[in-house]
Fold this sequence. Notes:
Layout (H helix, E strand, L loop, with lengths): L1 H16 L7 E2 L2 E10 L21 E8 L4 E7 L7 E7 L3 E4 L7 E4 L14 E3 L34 E8 L8 H21 L1
Antiparallel strand pairs: 1-2, 2-9, 3-4, 3-9, 4-6, 5-7, 7-8
Helix pairs in contact: 1-2
Amino acid sequence: MIRKLSVLLVTMLVLSSNAYATPITLNGLGMIKQWTDTEAVSDEMPDFIWGTSDTDGANRIGLHVLFADGTEGSATWNGVSGLWNTSNFTPLASDFSTGFMTTFGGIHFLFNTAATNTYPQALPLAWAGSVMPFSNNFDLDYNDPFNGINSNFRASVRGWSSAVFTTYSDTVGVVPAPATLALFGLGLAGLGWSRRKKA
Length: 199
């Protein structure tokens, strides 16, 4: 009976983890903010996309992006504690990357501000070279539309529909998803019921 409950619990945990479009954690970092950038809508990137990571002294951050057509990429950068709210610093290469971000150069702008159209603060994250299928320069930019297209990632072509952006930091506690906690509780209840039945 216990073996059956264990298999059921593991199966439910796997199914629940697949229910999220983006990871709750990214290579050991906790989630900060998530927003959807829609091709037909402007000004969707929130204020302070890094939460309080700059004032909290975060040294490692990450970004995950998932487009409506399945195009996906993520990266993390270690050693940013002295780079907050500065621009044109020596490009910092990612320490981990996947998907379309594996070809990106290092970041060289890092700002955490309210939405602004003033440069360089309007660039929460900018790369030294960031070409991908929908942009010739993927920099996150509060100024939109860019190239006549509503986007906060400097889209160069139309037809991408929407993209979900998620930021991460090492100063954010990694909290299990509510569904995971509920399933864990269900598993514990099942084990308790099984032991009571045996007794």
